[in-house]
Structure formats: structure tokens, C-alpha cells
Amino acid sequence: MDSKQIREKYIKFFVGRGHKEIAPAKLVPENDPTTLFTSSGMQPLVPYLLGQEHPEGKRLVNSQPCFRAEDIEEVGDNRHTTFFEMLGNWSLGDYSKKEQIPWFFEFLTKELRLPKEKLYVSVFEGDGDVPKDMESYEIWKSLGVDDDHIFFYGVDKNWWSRSGPPDKMPEGEIGGPDCEVFYDFGTPHDEKYGKECHPNCECGRFLEIGNSVFIQYLKRTDGLLRELTENNVDFGGGLERLTAVSNNNPDIFQTDFFADAIKSLEAIRKSSAPDYKTNPRPYRIIVEHLRAAIFMVGDGVKPSNKEQGYVLRRLIRRSMVQSRKLGMIGDEWLSNIFADLVTPYIKQYPHIDKNVPQINEIITQEVDKFRKTIDEGRKALKRIYTKVFGGIDPDNLQGNIIEGNKLRISGDEVFKIYETYGLPPEISQEIMKEWGLEFDEETMKEAMEKHRELSRTASAGMFKGGLVDHSEVVTKYHTATHLLHQALRDVLGPQVFQKGSNITADRLRFDFSFDRKMTGEEIKAVEDLVNERIKQDLRVDHMIIPLEEAKAMNAIGLFNEKYADKVSIYGVGPDYQLDPKALDQRDRGGYYSLEFCGGPHIEHTGMIGKIKITKEEAVSFGVRRIRAQLT
């Protein structure tokens, strides 16, 4: 069974049980400074899990593209990916365990036809004032799952909250026990992972394929947990993993997402390079990272040295490092597998299909840049060589490596080249090996570890994912971005569209499409327009209306994106005389600003205060950035 069939079966199964299919969120969240990427299906739904009413009701289902930067070093085994699709279904105060557990079991055994004896389950064992989850245990037993297939684990494995275990949850936080389902491939246990094998063992025998979280508790002001009157269900299951188990193959890279691309790589590898069976790691990293890069670029990310752009650049460059291990020093690895990786997504994600040429061009440009980095790094390595060997040029050895050249230089030298030019140590090692020169790997590891520790400290919290900051000041900034967006369109023209934003308690940052630097007069005109609308103290209206009605009202949105039948839009400013300077205000029903948005917003613009634009700058070709602060 391929991934397309499984995705369709899953959506159809839950729609048939009263769920409404909702559109997936963007891979790069908007107006959320706490996370770089959407990392789970539930992340965009946190406000609704906290009690906000969802426009599509209490039962929801979708397939959500996700990215987890923290898994980048894990890629290379048979199961880890940075990018994946999460199949999800949710109950917002509707059903709970007695519906969710049998439904998922039925989907696995009836729709995917997985043998019941291959399924193992983990259940919460209890902790402090949270009892052992015997209700879930009894439901699994009633479905015919034997005792020796049900395992109890503690808060580190079978408890969910955004803050971790119950004792770490702040006042007002929600959480609850979860049930994970694992598939048993029956592979022999490796005792280096422990004497006994079990579902959470890392030996490779078991693969987690789904997790049902039962949000039953709220942290009280006295530090204790109380049960909620209405429970929520949050289910997530990786599509890649479900595809692998439906074919009884523990290697997710042999699914239809990757198999053709890997065959294409094998066909163009250097004859002396290993095939996939001999050494699968470089193949897996190349196809996994390039697939993730395709989706990032498709969502508007450009390679850079900051935030999402830095992650994208790292993925592309890691792919290049691995391609050299297969004897590919050009971009043949990219041109030969690009179409293979795009094909499985053409019908599901039209924005990828429509932008294939642009995506390919952006990634190819980054590949070309990195090739120049390799050339610069190689020159630096040559300087080390000639210094050690008295001016001898390693490129003129004519195949005769100088006797005794197996000299081990300090790894710090190679790390300096990495920091200066961005040349990865793996490539440095490859180049130096040609010259008979080696570096001390221990000092290299020490230098790398110091670098990683600094990186972890600097980016603490950026990759963890989480809830949008709903503080009052951030909410003011969010509403201000709507006014700013429309003011830019009024001053610069209707070709201006938002390309991203980032909001903290200290400032707003707003990216928009425009092909030149703004003049000082234009910046002032935009600032004055925003502050004029703030001074008018305009009402902010929230509407949940049919998609076609929102289009007819000329609400600003990206209509090549996949939207639900009903959408959430915010309108600013119906209670004042229409401004003849506004481009299309009358067509927007009198609203000065009308945009697709999930919130949150203040109730009227007078609450904002005053905005000062502090900087206008370029982000990339055709994209500008404004920074502004409340004064």
C-alpha cells in the first residue's frame, strides 16, 4: 500500500465518523516567535485545545506537513526524518478514550490490514496524584490485545504537556496520559540496548506508529492537577512510518516517498562508491534532506545564515557532503532525484507542483554557492599542507605522496576552516586524505562540541515548538501587522503581499513582496497611515465564514493554499467614513484591513498605542523587511 492510499484511507475513515477535514497549516508558522517550524499536527490547534471554538466544530482530521530540526543529526538510520507528514484527528471536548482507541485499532487492523499480533501498546503507569490509566488498559484488553502486548511506562514516555511531566507544568497548563502503538517487525534484539526488548527499545525491532493523547488535567493554582469537565483527544501518526509497516519493511526509505530517488542515486554513483545495501546512510541523508528543503523553499524560505534560512542551508550542504561520498562532485545528485521526490506530493500539495521551477532554481543556486565554499576551503587546506611540507604543492605530487606524510595536525586548524569558510570536516578529511595528511580527530571533536554547546545555548527554545505568545503586547503587535500590511498596499500598490512575520514583546518584523528599497517619504507615509488608523480607534471584527464568501469580500489570503470550507478572517475599521485613498476599501465591505487569520487580536485599534518604523531592509530578491516598535 502506498502513502497516497494510506492518507486517503485515514481521512475518509475519520470523516466517516463525523470529523471535518481541515487544511494543513503552513510549514513556517506565521506570527509565532517561539518556533521556527510547524513540528506537529496539534501545534496550530493549541488555542482550540485550550478552549477556543474551532470554526469546523469539535471533530477534526487532517494530514499536516511537519519539520523537526532537532532530529537532523539522527537522520541516517532506517526511521528518522526531519520532515514528515503527521496524520491527525482531534476531539475538542467531544469523545474520549472509549471512541478513540477502538477507532485507531480498527483503522490499523481493518483499513491497513495489520496483524493484531504485530501490535504492541504502551499505557501510562501513574504518577503522584495522577492514577494509573486502567481505563485505556481495559479498552485495549476488550479489543483482544493480550497482556504481554501492553506495557506501562511513566511520565517520561506516556505523559504529554507542553511543559513536560506534571511537576513541571505551570499554573493553567493542560496535559494528560497517552497511549502509543508500536509495530513489531520481529527483528532479532540487540543486547547492547538492554537485556530485554520492549516497545520503547531502540534496537529497531519496534516502530512507534501512533500516539493518542488524552488531555484530561489542568494544573491548579495550588500546584495540584484537577480533571477537566471536557476532555480533548489529540492523535498523531507518522505517514511515512504507517506506510513502512503496511509493507512490513522497517526501512521507511524503501517507501514510495524515497525508493525511486535512491535508485536514481545508485544509477549515477561512482563505480567505487557503495550501493544502498552496502552503506545506506549517505543515500538516506541526501533524499531526506532534499525532500525537506523542497518543502521549505515551497513555503517561502530562502537559504541564509539566520533562523529557517540557516536550517535550509544546512540541509542542502549536508546533502552535498554525502553526495561527494558517492563520487558526485557536481549537482547531478540534485538534478537526477528532484522529480522523484516531488512526484508523491503533486496532487496533495499543489503549491509545490506549481513552483517546481523556482524551488529547483533556489536549491541549485545554493548548491553552486557551496561548491565555491569547498574551493575556498581547499585553498586554506593547501596552505596548511605547504606550511608543513616546506612549500610543496599537494596538487603537483603527480600521484607520489611524500613518504611519512601521515602527519596528524591539530583538529583546531580544520575547525577554524569550518568556521571561516563553512567547509565541513568530512570534506576536509576527504581532501587531506588525497594528500596523505590527517588531522587529530580528538581535538576536532572537542572544538566541535564547544561549537555545538554554544549553538544549543544561543538557540534554546527556538526549535522546541510551542504556543504563540498571547500576551497583551504581542497581541497589540499582531493587530498592528494587519494595519501595516494594508498601509503598505495603499502606499506601494496592490502587488504587495505579506511574506512572513515575527513578533516578540519588543518589536514586530514584517516581510513583504516588493522589488526595491522604499524611499524615506514612503516609509513615513506608511507609518502615518498606521498611526492614523490606531488613533481612529477602529473596531476589530472576527468572522468565521464560507471560503467563497471571504474571497468575494476580497479578504487577503493565499488562494493557492489549501483552505477549509469555512475560514477565520479579521476585519479592522468598519465604523468610519470610507477613505478614498484606500485602493479597494469599498470592495472589502468598508473594512480598512480584511485578512485570513487565526488570531489573536485586540478588540479595537486604540489599544495599540503608537507605531514607529525603525528599519526597512532587503531580505532576498523581491522581498523587503520592516521592523517596528510600539512607542
TrEMBL record:
Residues 1-631 form the Alanyl-transfer RNA synthetases family profile domain. One of its GO terms (cellular component) is cytosol. It comes from the Bacteria. Its EC number is 6.1.1.7. This is alanine--tRNA ligase. InterPro entries: aa-tRNA-synth_II/BPL/LPL, Ala-tRNA-lgiase_IIc, Ala-tRNA-ligase_IIc_anticod-bd, Ala-tRNA-synth_IIc_core, Ala-tRNA-synth_IIc_N, Ala-tRNA_ligase, Thr/Ala-tRNA-synth_IIc_edit, tRNA_SAD. PANTHER family: ALANINE--TRNA LIGASE, CYTOPLASMIC (PTHR11777:SF9), ALANYL-TRNA SYNTHETASE (PTHR11777). It comes from Candidatus Daviesbacteria bacterium RIFCSPLOWO2_01_FULL_39_12. Keywords: Aminoacyl-tRNA synthetase, ATP-binding, Ligase, Nucleotide-binding, Protein biosynthesis, RNA-binding, tRNA-binding. Coiled coil: none annotated. GO terms for molecular function: alanine-tRNA ligase activity; aminoacyl-tRNA deacylase activity; ATP binding; tRNA binding. Belongs to the class-II aminoacyl-tRNA synthetase family. One of its GO terms (biological process) is alanyl-tRNA aminoacylation.
